[in-house]
Design a protein that fits this description.
Elements: H1 4-28, E1 29-32, E2 36-42, E3 45-50, E4 53-56, E5 62-68, E6 72-82, E7 88-99, H2 102-107, H3 112-128, H4 133-138, H5 140-155, E8 160-171, H6 174-216, H7 218-235, H8 246-260
Antiparallel strand pairs: 1-4, 2-3, 2-5, 6-7, 7-8
Helix pairs in contact: 3-5, 6-7
Length: 261
């Protein structure tokens, strides 16, 4: 029969070993995903950047900070902006960025995501304040590019690359919306009047050309007269037409002039 004391000692060693491994193994081995990097500090000093895969650490001496290298998204909350032409609008945007240097993202700045978000908010207000309302609505791509360049320049020392910035929504005051609607209606009326006047001008030019052509060829006037009679007779078959030469009226006008003299 086995000695009960030996079994007890063995159980104690097994339990101790299990506790030891459960404490030290998580401190010794870390698994980094493909999109993660581990910034290792040894006794508080930067040691190296490791990953992806399995990395080995010295328990209780090495500390690791995980950094995600995927493209991250920041929603810039609505900001009240006064444009260059003194119009107050509410604007929000989306910022896309990623970490290109894990070491600098951890060492050079505290909470790089929050810091990038604050820079995006201040840059959005300062840049949009340099544009008029019409430019803000029409030149969205140009504004997005300018905001992206400024944020990227400021976050570059932190090892962060700004992929793109998109101004998502521009909310106008109701009074401004009504004013813009009246302006658009006036613009449409102006275009309609210009198009109408241009049509009248072109029609008059064509009539002048037709008159010159008829003056050179008198028979064309007679043919046009007969064509008009045919069109009227088709619409009103009860009418009777009696063609009278135009020269017939001129004889009366000459007679009236002679009587006056």
């Amino acid at each position: 029969m086995d000695d009960p004391g030996a079994i007890t000692n063995m159980l104690v060693w097994v339990i101790t070993l299990v506790i030891f491994l459960s404490i030290f193994l998580p401190q010794m081995f870390k698994i980094m995903r493909e999109y993660e990097r581990g910034v290792v500090f040894r006794l508080g000093k930067f040691q190296s950047t490791k990953g992806p895969g399995l990395i080995v650490l010295i328990p209780f001496i090495d500390k690791v900070e995980r950094v995600d290298l995927r493209v991250l998204t920041i929603n810039v909350d609505k900001q009240e902006v006064i444009t260059k032409d003194n119009v107050t609008v509410n604007v929000d945007a989306i910022t896309f960025f990623r970490v290109v240097d894990a070491e600098r993202a951890v060492i050079q700045v505290e909470r790089y995501i929050a810091a990038t978000s604050m820079i995006a908010q201040t840059t959005l207000r300062s840049v949009l304040g340099q544009f008029e309302l019409d430019e803000l609505l029409a030149e969205r791509d140009k504004i997005n590019k300018q905001i992206q360049d400024i944020i990227d320049k400021q976050t570059d020392p932190w090892g962060i690359k700004v992929v793109s910035v998109e101004v998502r929504d521009v909310i106008l005051p109701e009074s401004m919306k009504r004013a813009m609607a009246r302006q658009a209606e006036s613009e449409r009326d102006r275009r309609a009047k210009i198009i109408n006047a241009q049509g009248e001008f072109e029609a008059a030019a064509k009539l002048v050309e037709a008159g010159e052509m008829i003056e050179k060829t008198p028979t064309a006037l007679q043919l046009r007269f007969l064509q008009t009679m045919g069109e009227i007779s088709e619409e009103n078959s009860t009418f009777t037409f009696l063609p009278i030469p135009l020269d017939f009226l001129e004889s009366f006008s000459k007679k009236v002039k002679s009587d006056k003299e």
